[in-house]
């Protein structure tokens, strides 16, 4: 008798910043939530398992965004022209394809799910060489505008987070029937606090239960002007308290820990407790990273955006302002003024921002995307090979045994 096996998904990401890995983890969790029997493999075919030259080039990204953002803006815009992008894809694509092909042989996925723009095209090439039908799905993890590498036209499904992103992909030539507007995937742990939970979480980090709390963060790599931001918010005594998350930037964490501050401040490094930290906060100070914005939306916490990465994050500032979920304060003195205003009095403006965040958030985007992925897997599911029936002599033996 022919049967059908459990669905299998290969998730492709790369550790160029924390957002791609976070999206991959969120989708893996959602897939297993919806279908516990699903087989999921994850692969970073660039930094984690890529060739030496690809690893060396791509691993420059964290240093560039921390120390030379204008250079990144130049790289982004130059590479986003058709001739340059074609040349880059020809240079690195075959090396990434070989890694993906190996993972396809090992995992035999029904769907290859990409959350990084540079791996989708090589994944398509690997699928074509794999010997059977497999789905290819891309989840865009930028918010409004993005690199043309995301808009690979041969995917079966391409998920975008906003209406602006939908229009952007159409302009790049992707067929509308391949698009889904489902939001940006975040971990299902990101949610608004339950009654009394905010106070309990503050106690966990040794903070005052009832004092307004500002969460300051610089992404997975601790980028942005976080040192000056914390100085602006905490050097002098204030009515609020601060949590500063430095990510993997241990040098920054050390410098912050040595500061003598007038406002109570907790300094943390890379954390796995960001959902809880957001639920403990009244206000988030961050650069305009798409993941940070989506996580704040899901938790219904207003934002103070202090900067952006030139290129894919430029329009995210406009998104925050036009959506009414936060303010823009690029200089430390502007940041201090914004926090004072938002936390003053009964917090009417802050409350309106939180309400607006609740209206536009996609807190269950991960589940919606996982549902589409499983449906695509079902259309490409490999049948279990039919076992040969017993021979005539074996049938006689089986008959005698039954008697």
Overall description:
The protein is globular and about 70 Å long. Helix 9 crosses helix 14 (332-343). 47% of the residues lie in helices and 12% in strands. It is of the alpha/beta class. A 6-stranded parallel beta sheet has the order 2-1-3-4-5-6, sandwiched between helices. The chain has a 6-stranded parallel beta sheet with strand order 9-8-7-10-11-12, with helices on both faces. It folds into 2 domains: 8-187 and 364-379, Rossmann fold (3-Layer(aba) Sandwich), CATH 3.40.50; 197-360, 3-Layer(aba) Sandwich (Rossmann fold), CATH 3.40.50. Residues 391-403 have low confidence and may be disordered. Helix 12 links the parallel strand 10 and strand 11 (303-305).
């Amino acid at each position: 008798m022919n049967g059908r096996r459990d669905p299998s998904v290969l998730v492709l990401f790369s550790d160029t910043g924390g957002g791609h890995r976070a999206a991959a983890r969120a989708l893996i969790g959602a897939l297993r939530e919806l279908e516990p029997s699903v087989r999921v493999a994850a692969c970073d075919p660039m930094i984690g398992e890529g060739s030496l030259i690809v690893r060396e080039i791509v691993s420059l990204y964290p240093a560039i965004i921390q120390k030379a953002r204008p250079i990144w803006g130049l790289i982004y815009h130059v590479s986003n022209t058709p001739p340059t992008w074609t040349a880059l894809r020809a240079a690195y694509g075959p090396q990434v394809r070989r890694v993906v092909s190996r993972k396809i042989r090992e995992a035999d996925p029904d769907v290859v799910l990409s959350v990084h723009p540079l791996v989708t095209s090589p994944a398509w090439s690997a699928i074509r060489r794999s010997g059977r039908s497999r789905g290819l799905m891309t989840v865009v993890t930028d918010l409004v505008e993005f690199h043309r590498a995301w808009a690979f036209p041969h995917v079966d499904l391409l998920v975008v987070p906003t209406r602006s992103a939908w229009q952007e992909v159409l302009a790049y030539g992707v067929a509308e029937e391949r698009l889904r507007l489902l939001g940006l995937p975040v971990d299902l742990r990101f949610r608004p606090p339950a009654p009394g939970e905010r106070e309990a979480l503050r106690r966990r980090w040794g903070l005052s239960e009832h004092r307004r709390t500002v969460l300051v963060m610089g992404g997975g790599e601790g980028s942005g002007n976080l040192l000056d931001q914390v100085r602006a918010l905490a050097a002098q005594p204030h009515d609020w308290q601060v949590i500063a998350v430095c990510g993997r930037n241990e040098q920054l964490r050390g410098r912050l820990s040595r500061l003598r501050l007038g406002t109570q401040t907790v300094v943390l490094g890379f954390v796995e407790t960001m959902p809880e930290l957001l639920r403990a906060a009244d206000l988030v100070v961050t650069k305009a990273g798409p993941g940070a914005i989506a996580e704040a939306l899901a938790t219904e916490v207003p934002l103070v955006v202090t900067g952006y990465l030139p290129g894919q994050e430029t329009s995210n500032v406009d998104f925050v302002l036009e959506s009414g979920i936060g303010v823009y304060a690029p200089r430390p003195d502007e940041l201090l003024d914004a926090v004072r205003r938002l936390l003053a009095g009964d917090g009417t403006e802050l409350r309106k921002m939180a309400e607006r965040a609740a209206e536009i958030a996609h807190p269950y985007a991960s589940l919606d995307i996982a549902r589409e992925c499983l449906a695509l897997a079902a259309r490409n599911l490999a049948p279990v090979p039919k076992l040969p029936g017993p021979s005539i002599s074996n049938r006689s033996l089986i008959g005698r045994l039954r008697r």
